Amino acid sequence: MSKRENDSISIEDLMQLFIKENNLTKGMQKIKIEETWSKMMGPGVATHTSAVKLQNKTLLIHLTSSVLREELSYGKEKIIKMMNEEIGEEIITKLMLV
Fold first, then answer.
1. By C-alpha distance, which of 58, 38, 40 is closest to 48?
2. The whole model's pTM is what?
3. Which of 2, 43, 70, 97 is deepest in the core (most CB within 10 A)?
4. Nearest C-alpha neighbor of 72 from the set 41, 35, 33, 32
């Protein structure tokens, strides 16, 4: 009886390989960014957020409250830093609140 080779691979590595081979990286980033925004900002901000988009390393956040938009504009750099840390890579360089 021959020995079986034990080339084990983690599920995480397998998923990353699948995502890369099927060109799903941008779609996965979009989902991750939307989830991260809701998680970091909490339910209060999430209820006033109508859209979260990433275009050319610019994060576009559409808010329904002008007061909230003004408040968040004071902490743009901190939001960018926290979002990039949570995502695990530097994909956001600019934040636009509209």
1. 38
2. 0.71
3. 97
4. 41
